[in-house]
User: Fold these one by one.
Assistant:
Number 1:
Amino acid sequence: MSLLEAREVGKRYGPVVALESANLSVDAGEVHALLGANGAGKSTFVKILTGVIQRDGGSVELRGEPVRVSSPSQAARIGLAPVFQDPALVPDLTVAQNIRLTGLAVEEVRQRLHTMDIDIDFTEQAGDVPLPLLRMIDLARAMARDPQLLLLDEITAALPSDLAERVFAVMEDWRRRGRSVLFITHRLAEVIAMCDRATVLRDGSDVGTVIPREGGERQIVEHMLGPEAAMAEARAAEVDETAPVAAGAATGAGAITVEVSGLRVGSLAGVSFSLRAGEILGIAALEGQGQDDLFAVLAGERRAEGGELNVAGKALRPRHPYDAIRSGLVLVPADRLLALLPQRSVRENIAAPRYNRIGRWGPINPREESRRVSTAIEALQIDTRAQGQVRRLSGGNQQKVTIARWLASGFQTLLCFDPTRGIDVGTKRQIYTLLRRLADDGAAILFFSSELSEFPLVCDRVLTLFGGRITDELAGEGADEASLLRAMHGLVEEVTA
Amino acid sequence: MTSSAAVEARPRRGLNAGRLGRRHGWTVGVYVLLLLLILYWHTIPANWGSFDVQSLAIDALPLAFAAMAQSVVIISGGIDLSVGSLISLVNVVSAKYMIDMGFRNALLFGALLLLGSAAAGAFTGSLIVLTRVPDIVVTLAMLFVWAGVALEILQIPGGGAPAQYLQLGTGHWWSQWIPSGLVILLLAYAIFWLPLRWARPGLALYSIGSNRNAAYLSGVGVARTRIFAYALGGLFCGLAGLSLSATSGIGDPNAGQYYTLNSVAAAVLGGVLLVGGVGGLIGPIAAAFVVTLVKTILILKGVDQNWAQVIQGTLIIVVVMIGGLAIRQRRRT
């Protein structure tokens, strides 16, 4: 029997269509996945179902009754409890106060957390609680309402595997009790393991509902990307697999652009390596092994405490990102909004790094600027439908803009810190291809990622970092997950430094 | 994100000195500063005594209420630039009509005025919510509106109040060392703020100042809470205006000007962060006394009026800077 039935739901912001016409049917006792590339409209859909925003068209029925959800608190009353992508806890209140704020009993939530085997000090301020635990509190808060439908928007993205397991247990429990879960994730393995059915959105419309266990990953990706794109992707993937070999030959030829010796800062305890033009050097590490400090020093955000940094043969001690940028070292951070001007247009964002050259105080040459910006937009295939304000772009397109900025202003070395975090499969591939092309054109790229499967696809060489020191160097092709993890000191389980 | 290190923040039950310090350190610091100033102050006049204490309370009382009004609004994520002229308005209305009343009627009229000023605050808040014009713009406009109305009601300083009413602001109860104004201040705090602080309306107030989106997603009525914050601020403005009538004895359409920016100064000194969501009312009350006491001390020391202002401004920057440094230091460890 159908619990939730949404038909032709649409939402537009001015000329930008966030949701064209989406259908969704969730049965009672079902774990249903909602899938799609970034910008396909998943989060918009969830926000409409839970009353955060209002739909422009279409209908929603709950147990056969038409409903119009006007606010999150009303959604909770009729049995729809969401866990949103951003933590919904107020940072300056304690955990207990946050729970009372929603009108729930503190004991009830504590009980729910307890059944998930999580113990949290409720007198702690929410702002001081680590992100993964905040997600679990969010989940417990939603569970405490005992909803008919639990909506989980990318809850596992910020969770370590042991906590993700507990979320899956909750989903199992909900199904067993004849209730339903709507589950949004980018991890297709989770969908195949956990979900009964999956509805795929593309460009704001649903393009099909599949049974993941039967169709597998390939079928889902095909739906997500569309038939032609899927074929192009397959070709791109083939190219990618041969790319490292081709580049490996070139590695010897490139001149050393960045040389680091004995670098010490924060948790980084003496690191030496060199990076050549035309190569992509990977840095693989568990959370908090010094990679943040390494990138911060190279990008000029932090001063080194010891050791040397040579760029193009000259010693460099950056005191400010400006110094690093002038020497051709530029950063693409994981948090895109740290690098962008969210209220400004795509063009302005791309042109912004060009404004701060000293001695360029005169009027901006508009023709020259627009030529460079257009070239960068084209090279990166940025979707410019929502170009008026960068914050309206999808995450993948925002990340492309952060790279385009440097393309337009020129650089020698690109520092990519987890550049594909929270980006969908198709755009990830585009970014890999782009990085390879930049390297072939003579750029040096330092690449950190939290996804181990990216290293063999992207890198020529991989260094593993543990406890602030380099523990191993692997060739790109040899950097499969198992060897990487071993080199990252076999800390596969819950062991921490 | 494969590491579980972040998850190991297991609870440490029991008294946590570090956390207590982090949450209440600023307030304690302001009271220590106040105590130091008092110790210094009492060595200056030849025969310092209960009279000095009373005159300090008289001077500081309206500012303390104004600071409470401002703090409530700032905590909710707004700012109220109309505080001063709303105080003037309440001041002139009360002085104009109370002069002919008996004590009992004056009290009733005062209660009515409190309701009125709360309604005026709610009006400002509703304007902000409905028009979606930023807080600072709407309250700046209301600064002119209330000031104009106050001048319309009383062009020149005048009016008055029954003697018993004046005693409320300037007298003392039980002992010469306990000014009646101070008692009323504490009563107002206990009646109008404490019951809210730990209940849902108070939590909602802090939540919309801390993270409006998270508050909304938690089911808080954001618009309602914003209006409520301005209404509560209006109520404290009413108390400030009434206490100004009681301590000065007259109504003055320009008397409130002093309080607009000084209320912001007291709130900030008292540990209320301008970004919202952080602070309380206890700190700003003490800060109102600090601001007043510094002025008193500078006058006693015979410092030139203009230089006294420079010193007061410098003090605000220095205190807030030291507080900020202390917080950053603690975060680092």
Note: Residues 239-251, 490-497 of chain A have pLDDT under 50 and may be disordered.
Number 2:
Amino acid sequence: MAKTNSVVARKSIGEQILNLTRRPELGALAGTVIVYIFFSIFGGSQFTDIGGVSAWINTASELLIIALPVGLLMIAGEFDLSVGSILAGSSVTLALVSGFWGLPTWFGVLCALGLGVAAGYLNGLMVTKTKVPSFIVTLAMQFGLAGLTLGLVRLITLTTSIPLKDDSFVKTMFGGKFGIGEGAPEQFENAVFWALGIAIVVVLVLHVSPYGNWIFAIGGDIISARAAGVPVEKTKIVLFMSTGFGAALVGVIQALLYNGTSTSAGQSFVFNSVIAVVIGGVLLTGGYGSVLGVVLGTFTFSIVNRGVFYTGWDSDWAALILGILLLAAVLMNNTFRRLALSGGKKKEVKKND
Amino acid sequence: MTKRTGTPLLKLSNVSKVFAGYRALDDVSLEVYPGQVLCLLGDNGAGKSTLIKVLAGFHEPTSGTLEVNGEVTAFKSPKDASQAGIATVHQFGGTFPLMSIGRSFFVGAEPTKGWGPFKRFDRKFANETAVTSMQALGITRVTDGDRLIGGLSGGERQAAAIARAVHFGANVLILDEPTAALGVKEAAHVLRIVMQARNKGVAVILVTHNVSHALTVGDHFAVLIHGQKADDFAKGERTREQITDLMAGGEAMAELEKELSTLTGSIEKIN
């Protein structure tokens, strides 16, 4: 604040540090640092060198593309449990159109992304028109779309997995890989760039543009938001379309990266995205959260998920750690939220009351 | 009557509201003038909420007319009412506990800077405007617009909501039980804010069942019983006892007190 209004207090450095401790991301950051140190110790140098880093960065990138829009939606007070089937449905669509029927890959990609956006639109429409909780609507979509995908694919191809061969620019764009440094092996997925791009867009929407205010307001108090003139229904539908798009994009990336897909792809993303978002400090009931938090939550999830392989322990333990982490994160987030709500209130003032 | 001249800002004539055969409001007429506090008194279920919902555009009256500045108007939605300058503030401020003061102040009317697709939420302007508006109502303890609404006291939240309504040009402010959930000190704070809004020329409709709060700030009073306007009087025309009796349904209160005193008497006998 260069020019401060006389009535608005200037913040001292001490106050600014105090404000930092009230940031919702602080708990998420602590979580990320703790699990990283933990696996650096038990995973050894293999975890901390470029191979180990690329492993969890790749996992994090794919998850971020879905978790970021899911986070926005959760801040607006809604769930999307259909991302798994939207991912599978769109990756199968791409493989069918461009692999099975041999149409151009770019056309298949458009169909796949279109399917994701359309499914999201349908979710949003059903939630806003019927007032049925999004938990149920998207759960129905998750099962319905999975069944539809499996049924149609079996009818058309007689199998449940479809190969997709492509060496064009489109393949590089979505399913390519790159290495860091001269002659380094290509260990990083191009999904990293997609995740970065989406993160920037989501930061702009939530924290910079005026629309971010609508998202917080809808999740905080939907009746007041509507009374204040926020277009609640439209905003929600757009948010559902964005989670559909995110899931479809990962479907496209996976189909092109692995040269094919199956109808069971991506189901783990349903809960993984929720876990990452909640570890990142987004309030399950809406109205609170940040993009930085979601990014850190996704990192924490991915570090645990990949890190376990480097410890030599059975990978079964990863789920246990994630379960404990989820619980710890929610408890910690509640504490930080209380701190944030305590605001600048001084103790002696409280005593006077 | 105190300065009840000129056209009223808001005028209800013989308004009734019927819900599925139940008369929630029965032939109510009211006038609201700028710079005056109209206290709407009544027991629970007397029709206060229905009345303010009619004024705020949530309900359309079954019969009767509503005039804004002397012109007959029909509110089809809350939006119509807010465009006519009528703002409602609910008991808990109706705001967003986990949003910052600056952000919640401008929900639905976000200030932006920049151009075209590069428009950004103007956080600095939002924070400064929100804080200055609250300070104009006497809340000097709030200086940081980044603080969360949930971190404010009940009175400060009311102040934030009232400041917001005044900032967006409300000329009729409906306060629904603003002091009901507050302590003595906080309530006094809110009543002071009510007076400040009144002095700015805002017409205030204060809904309450606390007679002392009403008597402190009210210029004019209306008492509702079973959906009907039982009495309508200016400041100083009735005593506190008369008002309390009326709210409780005429002579009932005196009888109730008599009955209570016999009860306490019997307890003393037991002891």
Note: Chain A touches chain B through 36 residues (CB under 8 Å).
